[in-house]
Task: structure prediction
Amino acid sequence: YGLPIVTSADPTAHGPEFEALAHGENAMLLEELTADALADAIAAVVGDPDRQSAMSAAARATVLERFNVPVMVDGLEAAIRHAWGRVTGHQ
Result:
């Protein structure tokens, strides 16, 4: 959606979508997720239009380039081929 993410840097607090986040590129990942830290990070992004624009463009590019239907289909096909190869011995 082209929006920078502000969230916790703790990967255990997230699902697989965490893989898409890159601190300073398309996200602000906070070591301590407190109200003050969250407010400061949001203010830092919103208060700097150039930074917000760059992070928004990077967020959109992440989805368009890495998390789209053709990429997901290719990944699923590769997983099926790998599993089939293990079952049949044709790796």
